[in-house]
From TrEMBL:
This is WD40 repeat domain-containing protein. It comes from Nonomuraea helvata.
């Protein structure tokens, strides 16, 4: 979705820098200035209006990799509009991102390709969504590392993420104190955290553990080899934990299980909710409990997404589509699903029905969408795509309708 006009901002060293691009027919106009200085201008003609718009997007991509970003005030936008769009310097795309609970900071993990030594290092940086200022909070120079499962603590003081060695498949989790920049390695691989009860889901050797606020284990579950651990999730209250086992590595007859953390009892055992493929492979995506903890949302990267009754294990609805990522809204009523080729479709959690409007990343066509996430207050929806952009939409105030309604 090419644009005809765009304003980019760079935090600069002492004063912010601005670049405005405008496609007017076959002409591309460029204006740039620093602070409150006088703009300089340049114009170039192209063979067609389409060529002018494509040239605009090419410049936008290059400038975003240099630190420029689209930054708009939420008060000046309408529901569904783009508030922020930025990009990583790397061309291999985004590994993970997370929104700060206050909605003002974005954490982005990226790979840094070294074309000479064919290395792929990792880096985590924060982006101020008001000024565009960036800060590197973690860097890993080891070969073939990638960051995933990144999240801010509920109070916003720390950023936690997991680094995977893509050769050995070993994971290590770290936390960064944002005020000081101090990085600490955690003694376990962290999979998620509950904001209400202070409980945490971790993987330790061959065991899934739910840790309490004091750091002691509330529940231990055998999960098999770490590299083949299935998908797991903690419910919003920390009362339940759900997991899907790898088909070739389990010590239970059930594929899907839900356990009560307080009693240590399994409350549900059910088959894998998607059809078994001929190669017995599973594109395990995410497990998420809704706010009521009556519905468990399960996604498969190749087969789609479904809602499962926590009480009976019955499949309540199914979305048959290739979804790169899914996210539940904080109020538990909406599910955002990022189709691999886009766009992001919002579904009704109670019925699984798709809703309008949809979210399309503006600019140069994406190779594929990768990640989607809501802000803690539900006002923002962020989408990550390849070749390495994060686009933040205003979500609050949108009125959704059924397709054709």
């Amino acid at each position: 979705m090419n644009r005809e006009r765009i304003l980019l901002t760079h935090p600069g060293t002492s004063k912010p820098k601005y670049l405005e691009l405008r496609a007017d027919g076959v002409e591309l106009h460029r204006s740039w200035w620093t602070g409150a200085g006088k703009p300089q201008e340049r114009m170039k003609s192209f063979g067609s209006g389409r060529a002018a718009r494509e040239a605009l997007e090419k410049i936008v991509t290059e400038k975003m990799r240099d630190g420029y970003a689209v930054l708009r005030d939420v008060a000046a936008t309408e529901p569904g509009d783009v508030l922020v769009q930025c990009a990583t310097p790397a061309t291999n795309g985004i590994v993970a991102f997370a929104l700060h609970p206050d909605g003002g900071t974005l954490a982005v993990a990226r790979g840094i390709p070294d074309r000479v030594r064919l290395r792929l290092d990792s880096e985590v940086q924060t982006v101020d969504l008001r000024t565009g200022a960036r800060r590197v909070v973690y860097a890993d120079a080891s070969r073939n590392s990638a960051v995933h499962d990144m999240a801010f603590e509920p109070d916003g003081s720390h950023l936690t993420f997991t680094v995977r060695n893509t050769s050995s498949r070993e994971d290590t989790s770290h936390t960064v104190a944002l005020a000081t920049g101090h990085v600490q390695r955690l003694p376990h691989t962290r999979l998620g955290r509950d904001a209400v009860a202070g409980r945490m889901l971790v993987a330790d050797d061959r065991t899934l553990r739910v840790l309490g606020p004091d750091g002691h284990s509330c529940l231990d579950l055998p999960a098999g080899e770490r590299s083949q651990t299935g998908t797991a999730a903690l419910s919003p209250s920390g009362r339940l934990v759900g997991l899907i086992h790898h088909p070739d590595n389990r010590d239970t007859e059930y594929d899907l299980e839900i356990w009560d953390v307080d009693t240590g009892r399994r409350v549900l055992g059910a088959p894998y909710p998607f059809p078994t493929r001929a190669d017995n492979a599973r594109g395990l995506g995410k497990l998420m409990f809704d706010r009521t903890e009556q519905l468990l949302v399960a996604s498969d990267e190749t087969l789609g997404c479904c809602g499962i009754s926590v009480e009976s294990g019955a499949v309540c609805w199914t979305i048959e589509d290739r979804l790169a990522d899914v996210a539940l809204s904080p109020n538990g009523t909406r599910l955002a699903g990022a189709r691999i080729q886009g766009p992001v479709i919002v579904y009704d959690v109670a019925t699984g029905q798709p809703l309008e409007p949809r979210f399309v990343v503006p600019g140069e066509p994406s190779l594929y969408y990768r990640t989607v996430e809501f802000s803690a207050d539900g006002q923002l929806l962020a989408v990550g795509d390849h070749p390495g952009r994060v686009t933040v939409f205003r979500f609050d105030g949108l009125e959704f309708t059924k397709p054709g309604g």
